Amino acid sequence: HTVRRQSIKRGEPRQMPSLPHTAESTVREEHFSSRRKQLEDYLTNILKMPMYRNYHGTMEFVGVSQLSFIHDLGPKGIEGFIMKRSGGHRIPGLNCCGQGRMCYRWSKRWLVVKDSFLMYMKPDSGAISFVLLVDKEFNIKIGQKETETKYGLQIDNLSRSLILKCNSYRHAQWWRQGIDEFIRKHGKDFLTEHRFGSYAAVQENTLAKCLVSWVVEYRDELLCLQATSAVFFIYLYFLRLSPEIFMKRPVVEGNRWRLDCILKRKA
């Protein structure tokens, strides 16, 4: 970042917005609204400058990532850095944390909350590490007694328990309340029972229904192709899904119901 700042052309505008120099304790109450407006203008001007807008420290401060405002991923929920316990399980090993306690492996991750799922990414590369779907068993627990972790937060669904560690009880409570309120406001359809045991409600005019209509219309042309090519052509062009998504959950039969394995069997 320092190199980028030094490499900016001298002719480019570089004027930084300024904050008030007087102490907050000396400001009268009737001037509070103008001080808030000054702070708002300061942040707005910072975000208008690409060099600072794309800086990781700025993105962390405002709580955004490269996935925050992608329309197809749903509305933006709270985001931020958390400490995640690997796999949500204890690691067998030496008793080095005190009597009756085991050693845990903790990783720093960026947690993103959406209406139908939670996911966390690696902070250095931005690679998505895991996606936790919102389903009828979605639940959040807080406290050391429930999570076996000081300032712990446990998020459960049908297939996984995600254990997080926060800086304080207040921080854990903030995450719990933020996630719970957002999911119940935007993702309540995923919290109830649906037909055939599905985690999602019935949707009209979806891509899957369009795909069925398309296959019926062009079945003769598809029959001219080899089965493998036809199936994977349909998958690649229409579904636009991760080949590793499980079509039947919870996962109890290995990879049998993973999308790429289903397509391979059908081919």
Automatic annotation (TrEMBL):
Any one GO molecular function term: phosphatidylinositol binding
Coiled coil feature spans: none
Classification of source organism: Eukaryota, Metazoa, Chordata, Craniata, Vertebrata
Renumbered residue ranges of the record's region Disordered: 1-30
Keyword Transmembrane: yes
Limits of the PH domain: 75-184
InterPro entries noted in UniProt: PH-like_dom_sf, PH_domain, PX_dom, PX_dom_sf
Protein's name according to its UniProt entry: PLD1 Phospholipase
Gene name of the encoded protein: Pld1
Keyword terms, alphabetized: Membrane, Transmembrane, Transmembrane helix
